[in-house]
Amino acid sequence: MKITNKYIGMLLSIGMMLAIVTGCQDPSDFRKVRNEAITNLQRGGMIDFDDIRQKKLLKGDDPNNGVFTALIYDPNNNAASYNVGINVGGTRVQLGDEYTTFPTTLEIKASDIRAATGVDLEFGEAYNITGEVTTDDGTVFGPTSNTITTNGNGETTITGGNTDNELLATGSPQALSFPVTVVCGTVTEPSALAGTWRARETRHSSRVGETLNGNDYQIVAGPGANQFTIVNFYNQGNDFIVTQDPETGDLSAEAQLSYVDDTGRSAYDGAPVSSQIEAVLGPQAARNYGCADLIVLYLYHTRADTGGGALSSIRSEIRLTKQ
Fold it and tell me: Could you name the domain of life of the organism this protein comes from (predicted)?
C-alpha cells in the first residue's frame, strides 16, 4: 500500500494522543508532571508594584511626616486582602488598613512607623516593610521563602514559607518584602548646596590612609547640570565632582583621583587612590538630604595607578553637614 505524507501525519497524531492518554492514566507520571504541591504554589497569592523600577522613598520635609505611595496590583487575580507591616521586637505590627480591591494605591506613612516603633524617624534611615496576601480560599502568603525538594518518585516536599525565592529576588516587582528610605520631600538643587560643609566619617577601612573627620569643605554648583563639586577633597588639591538624580537626590560619581597614599605601608605608600560613588538604589544609596542640611556619601576606593584593585570592600561612609 502506498503510504502518503497525509497518512504518516495521521499515524503520528494518533500515536501522540495515545501517549497523552496513557500518560495521564499513570498516577506516578502525573505527580512528576503536575505535582499537587507545585500546583498549589502556582495558585498562590502575590501583590506586585505596577512599576518594576518603583523607588521606595518615604518623602517628607519632616522625617516623621513622610509618605510613600505606589500603585499595586494582584497579578494572580485571587487576592482577597493585602496589608503591610513592620517587625518590632520580633513581632509584626500592621501599618494602616487592609486593601481589598486591586489595583489600588498603597500608602505607607512615617507617622504609622513612628507609632509602631515608638521612636522618631531620621533622614537616611531605612525600614523593611513586609506584605501579607490572603487569597480567596483563606490562605495567607507572606515574605518567607520556601525550600522545594523532590525525591526519586517525583514527590515534592515544601518546607519554610510558601513564597518562591525567585519571586523575592532583587529586581522583582513583588510587594512582600521591601525597604522604604526616609528622604526629603523635595530635592535640593546643587546651587542651594553651595557653602561650607563639615565631614564626619562614620565608617572607615584601615586600608584607606586618609580620614576626613572634622574637616570643613566648600561645595560649589557644577560643572554640569545636576552636579556639585567638593573643593579640595581629601585636602590634596583634588576636587570631587558628584552627580545628583534630580528626582530622588541619589548621588553617583565616576572614579576620580582623591589623594596619594602616604601611610608608609608598602602595598599602598605613594600610590594614587581614586574614589567613586556607585549608583545604588535603596537604603545604601548616597543621597542629598538638603532639607536637613545633610549629604551622605558611600565612597569606594581603588588604586588609580593600576586601574582597579579595591583597597577594601568596606565603603567609607561620610556624612556632610552644612555649617
Answer: Bacteria
**Residue 84 has which C-alpha cell?**
503591610
pTM for this structure?
0.73
Largest CA distance in the chain: 99
| Residue 238 Cα to chain centre, angstroms | 32
Cα separation of 54 and 56, whole Å?
6
- Cα-flanking dihedrals φ and ψ of residue 14, to 5°? -65, -40
Q: Phi/psi of residue 19, each to 5°?
A: -65, -40
Domain residues of the chain, as ranges? 5-34, 41-183, 190-322
Closest by CA to 181, choosing from 112, 91, 282, is 282
The candidate with the shortest Cα–Cα distance to 287, out of 114, 122, 49, 119, is 122
69-116 residue pLDDT tens: 999 999 999 999 999 999 999 999 999 999 999 999 999 999 999 999
Please tell me whether residue 137 adopts helix, strand or coil conformation: coil
Contact 287, 183 (CB under 8 A): yes
Residues 6+ apart with CB under 8 A from 204: 211, 314, 316, 317
- Taking alpha carbons only, the member of 259, 323, 315 closest to residue 286 is 315
- Of the candidates 148, 170, 145, 233, the one whose C-alpha atom is nearest the C-alpha of residue 197 is 233
Residue position matching grid coordinates 544609596: 285
In angstroms, the Cα distances linking 99 to 25, 79, 81, 203 are: 43, 10, 5, 41
What pLDDT, in 10s, does the model give residues 222-281?
Answer: 999 999 999 999 889 999 999 999 988 999 999 999 988 887 765 677 888 889 998 776
The candidate with the shortest Cα–Cα distance to 168, out of 141, 203, 205, is 141
